[in-house]
Design a protein that fits this description.
heterodimer; A: 821 residues; alpha/beta; Ubiquitin-like (UB roll); FAD/NAD(P)-binding domain; 5 domains; five-stranded parallel sheet; 29% helix; 18% strand; B: alpha/beta; Dimethylsulfoxide Reductase, domain 2; Rossmann fold; three-stranded parallel sheet; binds iron/sulfur cluster; binds FE2/S2 (inorganic) cluster
């Protein structure tokens, strides 16, 4: 043992060890990129591990042995600067997407690429769990999301985006069909949280709080949970029975619910605090609609109210001719509902042009197919009653001069005058903030509002101005989408957890991200070389003439085959090496700017190896791959600019010696070498790793099985564990996907004779047949006419039971195994 | 070398070692008996003479013998190329003679070790799935062993008649004397040698239960097929070729209604009226330890992440990675001279090639798992017969061309791979492919003691 001092701290080290391993043992993490314990030296070392040794100068920690009394400086400002420079040099030649654009665009932050590719592999439940990590309302969001992610999907540059949201709906529906329930509640923390409002934000918050083990009570003014999902979205888009399922999934986690319990009328926040709730989350949504500010507006009915009544089956008489004022979701939904209630002429009037309609273009198209008409660049001026009918005076609009913010507002065209005659006018101008709650009590009065009359909150912690009171969803943000409310609920839950427990909930995903281009026009089209066009699967839907007669769901959902086909279109944009990328981690630690990186694809992506993808655009030149190969099978040549040290060219090639052992992929600290089968980009902390033994030969190699939600992502080997010390053969490392092969036997099969086909039976029947047959044979021909064959596929315990079965239960020594093969 | 020549080759190495005085006199004196008998026997095997049977040049044999005998540490690792012969057992004995004569045993980095082709054959044998032994190789004819197991298992009697070895089961079935088989995780209908005979045997049975992951070749003969969990889906232990007992961990759930083998065995036992209840494999291991001296000190909390090597007789025993340091199980080891055993079949004019069968790195046994893994079909999609370029040229066979390989028992159509990997006169095939059942061809020859088939030698012809 020797003693050395590192940055003033004295540590003990074993003689013969390097400074690096001595420091590692002492928990001091000196950064490295090229170091590979026990392997030969690289030609161009990364030099990240450089440290200053008193009397010796600057040395590489990875190859300098410790000496007694060494005084080392490992993290001086100068050294840190040096490391940063080295990393920056590498960034200059790095080209890739750490995470896929779909993932980055989703307001809920869902790992889209991950779940899409789990679906491609048939791992539907794992896909669902990955979605629920961020979004516990997949049944609803899968039906109503405006699909932010799809607008950024890289496949747009090739043909059409992946139908991401339809895939989400597919797994959500699949899981409700097979009755899947696997949400685990956290162990009780003894903390109690009250949630005001059982809409998407409240439900989402409840889910995440329960997962952390907090006790949750939802206070809901209506007699059912669901909020906007139930009352604001018509059944043809999101049927109430689906909302019921979604709500039930959340309640299954053990959430208390107080229905018909109105804030202000039945309780105040002070009451809640008095009743022992340590935190309150306000998620009441927006129930107030913007006023139609014209003469006679009292003749118009409120769109929000109308949709709720429709959903409750209490729709008013609306007659044949209906005019809807507005252009958002409520307007279009009101129009489509009016059609379904039997109205003959339904017109939406909106003062701007078509592309400016805030409702989703897809919904507008569907509405038109059902017969809704859009009267654009027009505005109502006055509503009058005439002979028991309504008459609306209208004008065409033009755009005014820009205001101080440069926005041009529509104004009635001077002299324009038009009339509409009909039965009902629905005003659907959208929702707005409602400050009435401030009169409910003292605490309420001190909750600050935003200029838009919504509750003022901190955008990431969802804290209001009152300690212990949080708010999220539409009541805080103004009218937004369901997924945004869900995300708000989740963020609030995380923040409430932190508030209650003084600890972080879950992992924080670092924002650092290399990208091939944030905008489509920045993305090098060579990225799509070699792909052929394949348009997306079309959602099966009921035809307009059929669906407009009822409120049943329009979209029917993907079949399993369609879902898998669609999922296989995914280009897997996010880096497949994410979980092993040390380079990225170092970039985060040293605050490297991701925008230093290359913007063009330099080398085609090589997929010719059966298991390994080579993307030389990400190579950092550490030579770990060649040095880990025991078969001289990898050819690597790296050229650097003499002065700047920037990597100028990289050549990576497998030769015919390659036995596909995969040692090189696992050694590569970037996504340059990645496994074809590892398509779910996850951070290392998001993975589960469990030790086991390889199933194949008798060497008994140690393996680490990496999984996510019951799906095996990859098999690795630990460099420290015997007998293989990190090595595996092709079967050990890559031969695991059989477990999810569709031909796996899933039910007992029986038949009377081997000329017949099998039929599936349950275990009881199979066991009954076995017992009858074996007992019969034993009685007539003796126990020695029966034999048992065990095998190497069975564990010791199973082999033991097999011979016990033969000897004790059947009564024969006829037991043998497969050892002769 | 020429297939089937192991014994003469090993004997000729011994011949050289003795001739040049390279044996370990001290070790032989202290630890062995009957060296003289061996000495006398191998006199008949000078390398020059043996060349005629093995094709291995005499000088090479002498060089190997010297190197093996004089190195500080020499280790014998042998595979199925030794065991899968009519003279398989004798071949292993020949190796043991070599090891004993040079004293390369009972110390680190030496000894003799069979490489196990399958992950848990060691464990399967350790656990007594053999007709003549109880767990831990306790004999079925030892009265005290029988009593111990009967008491522990709560039965009045245990069978006393000798059990059948697997190949005997098929033969007896064909004779109408063997009626039912319960086959777990094993696919003899594809992987056994001379499968025509196996198929006949299986067909003759009244009731066959197959328990597996997929519908295997053997399942085609089954009346009941039970879906089992693969090794990612169950807990337990495997014992590797170095006798290291290691934990397999359940990582994911089995699909559908599939269950772990141990659960299914318990259910069957209960259905048959013999109570067998365990809540976990750990409980089963406790019972194994109680009844098996070599495993007595093994328990789940001791196995850890590095495993325990048996013999491990007590709960605080560290395990025994090194055997035979002081004495052999019977005290002193015996030299047993063995003679050349001619393979069942040799090549002749009608069937001029020797077919050797074996495995490829990329696949495992019947291929039911590896052939269903992504990527493997790119590297090894189908059965190939490896044939030397000289032979190929003579027969007018191009690389990649489909040919028929025929033996006295059957015919298989495969693609030819013209390669120096096979030496002239021999061809090589594997048994990984359900669509080209190589074992239709293989020999009926069996090792007389273990009944291990002679996979490594049979006579075939190649028809373009
Ligand atoms: S192609 Fe796949 S990974 Fe890429 S953006 Fe689209 S969904 Fe995401
Ligand atoms: S897969 Fe194995 S053999 Fe092939 S290049 Fe990588 S390390 Fe070498
Ligand atoms: S391919 Fe990976 S391991 Fe090889 S030099 Fe490049 S970054 Fe390093
Ligand atoms: S030079 Fe030491 S780790 Fe790279």
């Amino acid at each position: 043992m020797v003693k050395i001092t590192v940055d003033g701290k004295e540590i003990e080290a074993k003689k013969g060890h390097t400074i690096l391993s001595a420091c590692r043992k002492a928990g001091i993490k000196i950064p490295t990129l090229c170091h590979l314990e026990g392997e030969r030296e690289p030609e161009s070392p990364c030099l990240l591990c450089m440290v200053d040794v008193e009397g010796k100068g600057r040395v590489r920690a990875c190859n300098t042995e410790v000496q007694d009394g060494m005084v080392i400086s490992a993290f001086s400002k100068e050294l840190q600067e040096l490391r940063k420079e080295r990393l920056e040099v590498l960034a200059k030649s790095h080209y890739g997407d750490c995470r896929a654009p779909c993932n980055l665009t989703c307001p809920g932050g869902i790992n889209v690429q991950g779940y899409v590719n789990l679906i491609a592999k048939g791992e539907y439940l794992a896909a669902l769990m990955l979605i629920k990590e961020k979004n516990p309302l997949p049944i609803s969001v899968g039906r109503v999301c405006p699909r932010f992610c799809e607008t950024r999907c890289r496949r747009i540059l090739l043909d059409e985006p992946i139908a991401i949201n339809h895939l989400k709906r597919f797994v959500a529906d699949y899981a409700s069909e097979v009755g899947f329930r696997d949400d685990k509640v956290g162990s009780p923390t003894g903390k109690r949280v009250a949630i005001i409002g059982g809409g998407p934000a409240g439900l989402s918050c409840a889910y995440f709080l329960r997962k952390q083990g907090h006790e949750v009570t939802i206070f809901e003014a209506a007699d059912k949970l669901g909020g906007l999902l139930r009352y604001g979205i018509p059944g043809y888009k999101l049927p109430n029975k689906e909302v019921d399922k979604e709500v039930q999934n959340i309640l299954n986690l053990g959430v208390h619910v107080k229905l018909n319990s109105s804030w202000g009328k039945d309780f105040t926040i002070k009451d809640l605090k008095d009743r022992g709730f340590q935190a309150v989350f306000i998620a009441t949504g927006l129930s107030r609609q913007k006023q139609l500010d014209i003469e006679g507006s009292e003749h118009a009915i409120c769109g929000l109210r109308f949709l709720k009544d429709v959903n409750l089956g209490k729709a008013p008489e609306i007659g044949n001719d209906v005019l809807i004022v507005g252009g958002g979701d409520i307007a279009v939904d009101s129009a489509r509902s009016a059609i379904r209630l039997g109205a003959k002429n339904v017109t939406v009037i909106y003062p701007r042009s078509r592309v400016e309609l805030p409702a989703h273009q897809r919904d507008i198209e569907e509405a038109e197919k059902e017969g809704v008409q859009f009267f654009l660049m027009a505005t109502p001026l006055r509503i009058m009653e005439e002979d028991g009918r309504l008459k609306v005076e209208m004008a065409r609009t033009i755009l005014d001069e820009p205001d101080e913010r440069g926005i041009r507002h529509p104004i009635p065209m001077p002299g324009s005058r038009l009339f509409w005659n009909g039965d009902t006018v629905i005003s659907a101008l959208g929702q707005e903030g409602d400050p009435t709650f401030q009169s409910f009590g003292e605490i309420e009065a001190s909750i600050k509002l935003s200029p838009r009359k919504t509750i003022k909150t901190h955008p990431s912690t969802m804290k209001t101005s009152v300690d212990g009171v949080f708010a999220g969803g539409d009541c805080a943000t103004g009218s937004r989408t369901v997924i945004q409310a869900v995300a708000g609920g989740r963020r609030a839950a995380e923040s409430i957890h932190e508030y209650l427990m003084s600890e972080k909930a879950g992992i924080t995903e670092p924002r650092f991200n290399f990208t091939k281009g944030k905008r489509f026009e920045d993305v090098d089209m060579h990225n799509f070389d070699g792909y052929s066009i394949k348009l997306n699967e079309v959602m099966p839907a009921r035809p307009p003439e059929r669906r407009k007669g009822d409120f049943d769901e329009v979209n029917l959902g993907f079949s399993e085959e369609m879902a898998v086909r669609e999922a296989k279109r995914c280009l897997k944009c996010g880096c497949l090496g994410l979980s092993k990328c040390t380079y990225r981690e170092l970039c985060v630690d040293y605050k490297i700017k991701a925008n230093l990186s290359q913007t063009r694809l330099k080398y085609p992506i090589d997929k010719s190896h059966p298991f390994i993808i080579v993307d030389a655009n990400k190579c950092v030149g550490c030579e770990r791959c060649v040095r880990s190969c025991r078969y001289d099978a990898l050819e690597l040549s790296i050229q650097r600019d003499n002065k700047s040290q920037v990597i100028e060219s990289v050549l990576i090639r497998f030769n015919e010696n390659c036995v596909s052992c995969g040692a090189c992929v696992d050694a590569c600290p970037t996504g340059t070498l990645s496994k074809k089968d590892v398509v779910i980009p996850l951070f290392p902390e998001q993975l589960n790793k469990k030790q086991s033994v390889c199933t194949y030969c008798g060497t008994g190699c140690s393996i680490d099985v990496v999984t996510k939600y019951g799906s095996i992502l990859e098999i690795k080997a630990d460099y420290d564990r015997p007998p293989n010390y990190g090595q595996l053969c092709v079967k050990g490392r890559f031969g695991y996907t059989f477990y999810r092969n569709e031909e796996r036997l899933k039910k007992p099969l029986v038949r009377d004779s081997i000329d017949e086909p099998f039929r599936e039976v349950d275990w009881d029947e199979a066991l009954r047949i076995i017992a009858t047959k074996l007992n019969h044979i034993k009685t007539h021909f003796g126990a020695d006419s029966i034999g048992v064959l065990a095998s190497s596929r069975c564990t010791n315990e199973e082999n033991y039971l097999l011979q016990k079965l033969a000897r004790a239960a059947i009564g024969t020594n006829n037991v043998d195994n497969c050892a002769r093969v | 070398m020429r297939p089937g020549g192991n014994i003469p080759l090993l004997n000729s190495m011994l011949h050289c070692i003795i001739e040049e005085g390279l044996f370990d006199e001290d070790f032989i004196k202290k630890r062995t008996d009957d060296f003289d008998k061996l000495k006398e026997h191998v006199k008949e095997y000078p390398p020059e003479k043996v060349f005629g049977i093995t094709d291995v040049p005499a000088e090479l044999v002498r060089k190997a013998a010297r190197k093996y005998a004089t190195s500080k540490n020499s280790l014998v690792l042998y595979g199925l190329g030794v065991a899968e012969h009519k003279g398989g057992t004798a071949g292993v004995i020949a190796l043991a003679n070599l090891v004993l004569a040079t004293g390369h045993v009972g110390k680190p980095h030496s000894g003799i070790n069979p490489l196990r082709g399958q992950n848990n054959v060691q464990g399967a044998c350790d656990m007594g799935t053999l007709p003549y032994t109880y767990p831990g190789y306790q004999s079925t004819s030892d009265q005290s062993v029988l009593e111990k197991f009967a008491t522990n298992w709560g039965v009045n009697t245990l069978p006393v008649t000798d059990g059948l070895l697997e190949p005997e089961m098929y033969s007896r079935a064909i004779k109408g004397k063997f009626k039912a088989l319960y086959c777990v995780g094993y696919d003899p209908a594809q992987t056994q040698a001379n499968i025509g005979h196996v198929h006949e045997g299986l067909k003759a049975m009244d009731f066959v239960i197959v328990q597996d992951l997929f519908l295997t070749e053997t399942a085609k003969f089954a009346h009941v097929v039970l879906p089992s969990a693969c090794f990612y889906e169950k807990d337990g232990t495997f014992t590797s070729g170095e006798r290291r007992v290691r934990r397999v961990n359940k990582i994911i759930d089995p699909p559908g209604k599939a269950k772990a083998d141990w659960e299914i065995i318990c259910l069957i036992s209960q259905a048959l009226g013999y109570p067998m209840f365990y809540t976990s494999p750990e409980q089963i291991m406790a019972e194994i330890a109680r009844l098996t001296p070599a495993y007595a000190g093994i328990s789940y909390d001791r196995i850890g992440d590095k495993g325990l090597v048996w013999p491990c007789p007590e709960p605080d025993h560290p395990g025994t990675p090194l055997l035979h340091t002081e004495r052999f199980p019977r005290g002193k080891a015996n030299f047993v001279p063995v003679s050349y055993i001619i393979p069942e079949e040799v090549s002749d004019d009608e069937y001029p090639f020797i077919l050797v069968t074996g495995r490829r790195l990329e696949h495992y046994n019947n291929g039911s798992m590896t052939r269903r893994c992504e990527g493997f079909d790119l590297i090894s999609p189908e059965e190939l017969v490896e044939i030397n370029p000289e032979d190929a040229k003579r027969l007018g066979i191009q690389d990649g061309q489909m040919v028929k390989v025929e033996s006295r028992r059957g015919r298989v159509k495969v693609r030819a791979w013209v390669t120096e990997r096979s030496k002239p006169g021999t061809v090589f095939m594997t048994f990984h492919f359900q669509d080209a059942l190589t074992n239709i061809l293989t020999s009926p020859g069996l090792d007389s003691k273990t009944l291990t088939p002679e996979y490594k030698v049979c006579a075939v012809r190649i028809v373009p």
